[in-house]
Amino acid sequence: MRSLPLPLALTARLTPVAVLACAGWVLTSGPETPASGEQRATGREPVTQSASGPSTTAVPKTYAAAPAPCTSLAKKTITSLVPGAKTAGKEIPSSDSDARRTCSWNALDGYDYRWLDVSFEIMDSDEEAEKSYQGRVEDKKGGGEVPGLGDAAYSVVDLTTEDGQDTREGVVLARADNALVVVTYNGSDFETKEAPSTDEINEGAIKAAKEAMAALEDGAA
Question: What SS3 class is residue 37?
Fold first, then answer.
């Protein structure tokens, strides 16, 4: 079957970009001092007083560095979600690979196009990660919570049309302690000009997010 050239809108997507990375990316200047009640609840060290003045003990982070994103998914998952893609994926360059890493897979299989991104973002504290997570959820209307995925997770699917071609895209945001997992999954059918169903995109994005979360948690064990 002869493959068709990509429309301009989708050709532009093939330029490696860090999907959703800039939205809500906030770095704080340092850890807050926990109150005594919080210290009892979380086990974090309180501020201590010494002869030379007050000092703080840094709270250890659950996740110190982002795992390798291109090996976070099983090969059978990649071939299922992105038929025709190289399972090795392509890691997008990052200015700080400890704090943020992203891998992309995309392929045109006949007339069907699929794109999948998996990103890990490591922040300085649980509070910072929670703030970033909540800010991104507020920017993504019309979705819903995903139970059983990290400490909190949210999924949303949108349909766009450009030059008569439909594209459906799903985004899953998940948080575990001081880390975020962000999955973007979309697809188009260039023969029918239609897009995959909402269920197909949503279920595929959630499946990838669950495997990525498992890879994150395994790395911290």
Answer: helix
CA 126, 128, 133, 135 torsion: positive or negative?
positive
The architecture (CATH level 2) of 63-220 comes to: 3-Layer(aba) Sandwich (3.40)
Q: Where are the domains of the chain?
A: 30-60, 63-220
**Neighbouring residues of 101: CB distance < 8 A, sequence distance ≥ 6:** 66, 67, 68, 69, 91, 94, 119, 120
Residue 75 gets the label, from left (phi > 0), alpha (psi -120 to 50) or beta, of alpha
Please state, in angstroms and rounded to a whole number, the distance separating the CA atoms of residues 128 and 177: 10
The 10s digit of each residue's pLDDT in 205-221 is 999 999 999 999 998 54
Task: Render pLDDT for 90-99 as a digit per residue (tens, 0 to 9).
Answer: 999 999 999 9
